[in-house]
Amino acid sequence: MTTPNLTKPSPTLVIIRGNSGSGKTTTAREVRRRFGRGAALLEQDYLRRTVLREHDITRIDPVAPTFITATARTALDLGYHVILEGILHTERYATVLHQLIDNHAGPVAVFYLDVTFDETVRRHLRRDEPMSFTPEHMRSWYTHRDLLDIPRETVIGETNTFEQTVTTILHASGLTTVAPQTPCPRRCPHCARKADRTTTVTEAS
Known about the structure:
By secondary structure, the protein is an alpha/beta fold. Helices cover 47% and strands 14% of the residues.
C-alpha cells in the first residue's frame, strides 16, 4: 500500500523589481489584493526606510539586503506566498536575491518593469501620495535594465497597461491557481464565511 504524500507544496516567491516610478509598488499591492490572504507583501522601501532607517548606499555595509531577504525567507518558511518588491539594485542585492531564489524549493517568478527615465518621472509626478524626492534624485538612482540575469526573469515594458502588467504577473507566477497555505485563510471562520459568500455569488452568476 502506497502512503500518500501529505507534504504541503512549497509557497510561491514573486519578485517585482524596477526603477523608482516604474509602478512596481502599486502593481505589487494590486497583485496581493487580488490574491487575498495568505500572501505576504514585502516592500523594500518600508523595510529599509521605516523599519531600519538605513540609507541605501554601499559605503556603510548595509544591513537591508540581508534583512529583507531573511524576512522573505521567514515568511516562505511559515507558508506564506511572498511578493517582494523594490528597486533592489543588483549592485547591493544580486547576491542575496540569487541565494534566496536558489535556496527556495518552490515556484519562483521574477519580473522587471522596464520603464524609461522620462516615463518614470511622468509617473512619479502623477502619484496620489506626495513623495519627498525630486526628478533629480530619481536620475541619480536610475539604472537602465538592471536585470538579475536569470532564466526565470520576465521583462515587462512600459507600453503595457497597469491591468496587463498585473494580469501578467498573476498568471506567469501561478498565483491564479495556487491556494493559500497559512492558517488564517485555511481555518479562520471569518475567511470561511467570506469564501462561502464568494462561492454563492459565483454559482448564482
